[in-house]
Description:
Strand content: 5-15%
Largest sheet: 7 strands, mixed
Shape: elongated
Distance between the termini: 123 Å
Mean pLDDT: 86
Radius of gyration: 41 Å
Amino acid sequence: MSDPNLDMKFDNYRPQSSQQKQKAKSSRRGKLLFIFLLISLLVAVGVFVSFEVKTSHYQSKLVNHYGTQLTYQVVPFASDKVIYPQYGPFDIRHGYTKLPQYIDKLVKNGFIIEQQASFSPMLMDYTRYGFFPPYHEKAQSGLIIKDCRDENVFDALYPSRAYQDSDLIPSEVTNTLLFIENRELWNPEPNHNPVIDWPRFVVASIKQIAEKVGVNMSKAGGSTLATQIEKFRHSEFGLTSSIEDKLLQIGSAMVRVYQQGENTLAARQRIVQDYLNTVPLSSAPGFGEVHGIGDGLWAWFKTDFNRANQLLMSPHNPKTADERGQVFRQIVALMIAQRRPSYYLLQGHDDLEKLVDSHLRLLVSYALIDPQLMNSAMQQKLKFDRRKGVPDKPNNKGVNAVRIRTAGMLSSNLFDLDRLDLTVQSTFHGDLQQQVGDYLRGLGTQENAQKVGLLGERLLTPDQLPNVLYSFTLFEKDRGVNRVRVQTDSTDQPFDINEGSKLELGSTAKLRVLATYLDIVAELQQRFADKTVADLYRIDVEPKDKITRWVVDYLIETRDRNLTRMLDAALQRKYSASVDERFFTGGGLHAFNNFQKKENTRNPTLYEALQDSVNLPFVRLMQDIVNYSSSYNSEGSMAQLLRNDKDPRREEYLKAFAKREGSTFVRRFYRKYQNLAPQARLETFFNGVQASEHRLSATYRYLQPYKSTEDLKQFLRERMPEKPQTDKQINSLYNKYGQDKFNLADQGFIARVHPLELWVLSYLNDYPDAKLTQVLEDSQATLLEVYRWLFRTRHQNARDQRIKVMLEVEAFLSIHQRWQRMGYPFDFIVPSLGSALGSSGDRPAALAELMGIIQNDGVRAPTMRIEKLHFAQDTPYEVKFANDIKQPIQALRPEVAMALKNALANVVEKGTARRLKDSIINAEGHIVRLGGKTGTGDNRIATEIRNGRKVSSTAMNRTATFVFYLGDNYFGTLTAFVPGSKADDFSFTSALPLQVLKGMLPILTPQLFATQPLCLVDEPE
């Protein structure tokens, strides 16, 4: 039998050739080579990664190259190539998130963009991806106010205490921080990436992934100081809410670190500095939000930051060892507490003490602090100080005026404003402001008052000195603008006498009356100057209109059309100073007095009356102004209708007049109230109604028809606290002036207000969003009814009395328009001749504005306190605004302004302000011309009136004011003010502010009249 192994063969069997054997060997070698190459590659990658992790050699080059293209530049125009942040505590606090709204608001308030940051295309893309723009963020920022010399007069830097340079940080503080938070920053490699701590990052990433798939692992933080800073400052709510947030923080931090160069040693020092200045440390009672170690030391321990650093930078000294150990213990505590600041700093003090002790032992074991410091710190205990610190509130009224105006323009509060990264260039002169403020505050002492000469007759007694407040404002006319150089007062309260008040400033109102009179004379001269003598004789002048009569007669007699000479002649008109006459005004008979009885027999010219501040000539002049404004020679007056009383066409006159004149009043009253809230509308209206129970009740019942008797009682109690009404009287008033008891015209007559003001206000109460066109359309029937009543009264005397009242109301509305053109600040004036003596109230700032018109040749120039606003300087969000000067208004003719200026100079030369005569000598030795008007206001509430005279009254306040100009460029006001019932004890006159100003001139003169300009002048570009 043959061997089967030899005989058996298969069809698929093929013997191996030598070539096939060679291929098999090659394949095995290839696999081995691939494995070798793969291992080599992995080893190379590992070596590369290890090298890169250790040195950051390549990433530093790549990120630096990329970062250098993320740039911005400040361009001299408005730019749309900028993306503002939408969140982040740092960006919110500095105002960067609100810059788009601020830009819109400031443009609407008359500012223009002078410069603005513009992003490069790559920075635009980078920011769109959500990364935070790289730039050197400020250690401190906040509102800064500069004066007209570009010197700081206010700053609200936040945090208040910070390391301005890394070299100022004690090594113990740096070592402690890095030991606790980020030891990798000690890496000696120059290009080391301080943003990622790779071991911690890998562990943290694994645990994040495990948490996503449901595996519970203890959390571990992978944040370095650099990423924590990005989180604190720029992440929403200062938190890491997602992996995306973490990646944005890492990416932004890396670009920020490497943008300035591949070497990160300086960047790491900056990280330490930024962290110490930024770390959030909860909110301390009486302090608020705490950021940074410096503020943390003060907020939680009342430890002085500078003293703490001085101790730590000094070598061990047994005398200061305890204090040195205490401050170091506090710093270590704050660094530990940042992990859970609200717990450790508010509740867990014992736990914090234990942690501090353990960290101190570790620090000395690693030779990071000396044993002596550890021993000193271990012997101390943390002493938390919960006392409320006294906040620094600026008492500089000029600074506060700038802050309040800026906050108003930005729709911000003062707290948030002070945190903005904003520099405001103001018009104030810092040194002069401080010197004048110190001078005024010093007048409360007897020594200073005696030196200035404030003690004596018509001045003050020593015991009165502390109760008098002084307010001073100085303006400079400069390049078409009135720039405020000084605004201050003697009180440290927020109340601003100068702008935040309505005061009775007495005889200063005579200046407004005289300006109104001369304005009317100039108006009539322009109207009649081209007429021939024959034409002038034919002019029909109403008998009571003495001003028009005088102008016409002057032109006939002199044939002189020169306005300057006519105005001089107008000031030479004589008016009696007699007090024997009673005047029908304000709906009744009133009597007025002069300051001195010896003036009662005088018959002075207006020039002399202003010089000596005689009252009755100005009451009679105001009467002439009222008669002119209500005469048919005054265009648009109701008297044009009344003169046609017997004309059969009076119905057509009535309709045409009602439509034209009534519509004018509807427009005026609509504009007065349209932007006010409903309650504010009522407050504004009732503030202009005389405090009489009948007038107030009538208007209240008309405007609030559904209110109860109790509501009326409460209303009268608030408006007339000095004259309480019984329930019986309230019921009587409620029923007497009930709904539909009187028509609209009667209501206006009772209240001594224009009936259409009542109607417009009532209409807006019912339709608060009504447009002017709608109001005008719906008023047409009312217009005719309001004026028709003039012809319905049966008795001639009753009709005449009503006509007088309504003509006076209408005349004062016309006068009010003139006064507003000259800067009068309020929405109404009292329709009484007493307004000539100050009964309508005024503000020192508004009087200064009138003086500015006179100083500016009749031009009402805009008042400026803020020149420029500079947001986010040296950041990618920088934007600079300049005040776009408004077009000035010609409020008075130049000839009128010059006539007034001469008359005011005479007040100083010969009149009530003569104690200031020749008191200013300029640098060349020449006398400087000055002028002004004095006024004393004794604001009282009448408690009893007999025969038109006050016989009993209660003092509300007392004022004495001097409104002035100095030379050709400066003007302002000085006011002495005593508030409240204690004003009854004072009898000072305007001699007081005159003497105060005289004592101030040694401060003002060297600054205002030196050879050099008071402030820096911007050179045109």
